[in-house]
Design brief:
single chain, 249 residues, alpha/beta, Spore Coat Polysaccharide Biosynthesis Protein SpsA, Chain A
């Protein structure tokens, strides 16, 4: 194992890893397993934001997290994924110790080196980086270097890394709506490049309401698990996804 650079350590120490939670414990466990198996995770920087889940007891979530991880339980459901994200944004900007935000999702898993790739790619961005390169989001241009980056017309909000100034700007200028994710992208695209890693460091393994068809499933191009834990989850869940999607009417 190579020693981490000072730049990586500074980034990692200041990073809040946010996981929005609403039911779907099975998928959440896959994400947590992959995070736990990945390199150089500071579990004290992980925050699980439980949006009043009703399918499991809060103590089950607490036991599923690393003892150092943080659990935020809300008594009232936010009513939408968009509002849950905005609530995480507001929590993040109030934090004194975290200057960067990694926004994950229970439908994702992470690669072994996701934090290192995130730091390297983020250092070449303008404060926003997607770790998921999906063909669903059109590529405008490509930037060489290590790691290679793409400029996208739009990105999803999950599997992204943010600077605090960018999040503050979003909260100040983008009102809540049913199209919040699209509105955020449209607003930021006029200000900064929407950067994305060429080779994804997160992958979708949870089929949700927004991913009902093969043509709409947000597959992460170039994803390599990098360790046995993530590889086993990916193999097992990919087979389930294919069977599920191909049998839908």
């Amino acid at each position: 194992m190579t020693e981490s650079s000072p730049d990586f350590n500074a980034f990692n120490n200041s990073l809040m890893i946010a996981v929005p939670v609403f039911n779907r414990m099975g998928h959440l466990l896959h994400l947590l397993e992959s995070v736990r198996a990945s390199r150089d995770v500071l579990h004290g920087n992980l925050y699980a934001f439980d949006d009043a889940s009703y399918e499991f007891d809060p103590m089950l979530l607490r036991r599923s997290l690393d003892p150092k991880a943080n659990m935020m339980r809300f008594n009232q459901h936010s009513t939408s994924a968009e509002r849950a994200i905005e609530r995480i944004f507001r929590f993040f900007v109030q934090s004194q110790e975290h200057q960067h935000l990694a926004l994950l999702d229970s439908g994702l898993i992470v690669a072994d080196d996701w934090l290192h790739a995130a730091q390297q790619g983020f250092s070449r961005s303008s404060g926003l980086l997607s770790l998921l390169n999906t063909p669903m989001h059109h590529t405008e241009s490509r930037i060489g270097g290590t790691p290679e980056l793409l400029i996208k017309q739009s990105i999803g909000l999950m599997g992204t890394v943010w600077s605090k100034p960018v999040v503050v700007h979003v909260l100040q200028h983008v009102p809540m709506s049913k199209r919040y994710a699209q509105d955020v992208c449209q607003f930021l695209r006029a200000l900064i490049p929407l950067c994305c890693l060429l080779e994804s460091r997160v992958q979708h393994v949870g089929v949700s309401q927004q991913s009902l068809h093969l043509k709409r499933f947000e597959h992460g191009v170039g994803f390599a698990p990098g360790n046995a834990v993530a590889a086993q989850i990916l193999s097992r869940e990919t087979e389930k996804i294919i069977l599920d999607l191909t049998t839908r009417k």
